[in-house]
Amino acid sequence: QVKNKAPAEVQITAEQLLREAKERELELLPPPPQQKITDVEELNDYKLRKRKTFEDNIRKNRTVISNWIKYAQWEESLKEIQRARSIYERALDVDYRNVTLWLKYAEMEMKNRQVNHARNIWDRAITTLPRVNQFWYKYTYMEEMLGNVAGSRQVFERWMEWQPEEQAWHSYINFELRYKEVDRARSIYERYILFTALVLVHPDVKNWIKYARFEEKHSYFAHARKVYERAVEFFGEEHMDEHLYVAFAKFEENQKEFERVRVIYKYALDRIPKQDAQNLFKNYTIFEKKFGDRRGIEDIIVSKRRFQYEEEVKANPHNYDAWFDYLRLVESDADAETVREVYERAIANVPPIQEKRHWKRYIYLWINYALYEELEAKASKRTRQVYQACLELLPHKKFTFAKMWLLYAQFEIRQKNLPLARRALGTSIGKCPKNKLFKGYIELELQLREFDRCRKLYEKFLEFAPENCTSWIKFAELETILGDIDRARAIYELAIGQPRLDMPEVLWKSYIDFEIEQEEYEKTRNLYRRLLQRTQHVKVWISFAQFELSAGREERLPRCRQIYEEANKAMRSCEEKEERVMLLESWRSFEDEFGTDATKERIDKLMPEKIKKRRKLQAEDGSDAGWEEYYDYIFPEDTANQPNLKLLAMAKLWKKQQQESEAAAMDPDKDIDESQT
């Protein structure tokens, strides 16, 4: 009985015991001592002990074949061949499917020059495991090394009865070729081709190609051609493969049969789907570059590119860029009917949505079609039909393309059919008036010198778009050119009286320039005054002053200075101080060139002082975003800023006094000298 039943201080778990045992397995044991055997009894005793060890290992686990192989190899090392053979036989009884066991057994027999025993083992191996190719390779190799060619051939024949994989057939063929048995190799090829045709669901083309190359290599060219022809017939049009036709064509190319090569390539290209014939295209192109003429090469390249474009437009019929490339290719090579067919296919893909941005690329298909019919095909009737069909297709109530109307009108003019051109442009303006259409129609009538028609068109244009300043200016310029100054001035007056304009500053400038050209200076001044009633922009004042300066009269300088004075008074209430500074800079430039010392001094006193200030910034959400520095201008004339100016002057004086006192403190000798002085 255990008297002390308290638990031990150090507890040991089962996991610790297992871990310790595992760690001690890795400890290196000292090697066993070397033994020197001096007589037969010791040798027999050593053999007995080793055999007992091997037998014990086998008895513990019979299925571990490595123990059997080690046992047999040890017996073989002692030249106990009979015992080793017995061990291998016992092992085969345990696991006859073990490939390594058969190989080691046969290698032992061959190593010890037991040829018949080795043959017996190989026969048993290939009979037991006929699908293990390694046994067949080893067996045939052994027979060939022994010079038993007939025996090796017999083994190959036995192997072929099992219908092995492709490499086995080629090994048999190479074996026959090593002994110059070409007829036998040909018969093996025939058997293999027949086997693939009858047994395999999808026979491979490469076997036919290898057979044909075999015939070609041995200079049986007629046989090789026959093999290719049989292959083409065997696969038919349902299972055509480009590799077969490429090989066939290269064979004929080597035989200098160039017409046959072209026929083969064209036959294959007409029947094989284009996506599966890329290599075929490539080889055909190379062939034509080597042996063909320029026309043949171009035909191949064009056909290849045409196929690519066909695939693109088939995948996406609304890919108009692909259609443009396709049409450019077809126009460069094909006849007119083919080009028209492609154009008709392209324009049939109308954009599904009636929005102008989707039609911008599509409309150029029609334009190119019409230009092709006119310039290349020289068919004016078809050109007119194309333009009319396009204009009927466009949804003019939603949007239109002025370019199309103008091109149609220009075409009719080239055909010397002016009434049709005018009718087309008139219809366009009636259906869907646009600025571009009016401008194109007016330009046409100007070229024809039909000024009355131009006046009517301008009137219609300005009724449609009265805010268009460019149209008013062009109309007035037309009347000026025609010499009707009063009519031009009336047009300008109508224009500036419009309630809404897109570019009023351009219109006023044009009107002022017009009056200056007519040397109507009083009317020009009145125009400036009327403009200043509408806007107090600094550029207007500067332009007014420069006009007075360039008027060329004696009182031009006082008038100019007076304008600057008025502008300065008017700009005092302007919030944009930069504009006021711009005015003063222009005034100072004028005084520097034409003024006296008094006027120069006066303008210098008016110039503002530039100071740097800080202001607080706020973010979009109202939070504090820091401070920003900016420049501000303080004008001496602004009485509201006088206290600030006084404060600024006092601050500058105080800063100057501080700097002087600091300089005196840094240099006391200088103060003594100054006091003595």
What does the main sheet amount to? 2 strands, antiparallel
What percentage of residues falls in helices of 4 or more residues? over 70%
CATH domain fold name of one domain? Serine Threonine Protein Phosphatase 5, Tetratricopeptide repeat
Low-confidence stretches: 670-677
How far apart lie the N and C ends? 126 Å
Could you say what the CATH architecture of one domain is? Alpha Horseshoe
What is the strand tally? 2
Give the overall average pLDDT.
81
Oligomer: single chain
Protein structure class: mainly alpha
Number of helices: 35
Protein architecture, described:
By secondary structure, this protein is mainly alpha-helical. 72% of the residues lie in helices and 3% in strands. It has a domain at 208-292: Alpha Horseshoe (Serine Threonine Protein Phosphatase 5, Tetratricopeptide repeat). The protein has helices spanning 14-25, 40-60, 65-77, 81-94, 99-111, 115-128, 133-145, 149-160, 166-178, 182-199, 205-217, 221-235, 242-254, 258-271, 278-291, 294-315, 320-333, 336-347, 356-359, 362-376, 380-393, 402-414, 418-431, 435-447, 451-464, 469-481, 485-496, 504-517, 521-534, 538-550, 556-570, 577-594, 597-606, 642-666, 668-676, and strands at 609-618, 624-634. A two-stranded antiparallel ribbon has the order 1-2. Strand 1 and strand 2 form a beta hairpin. The longest helix is centred in the last third of the chain and has 25 residues, at 642-666.
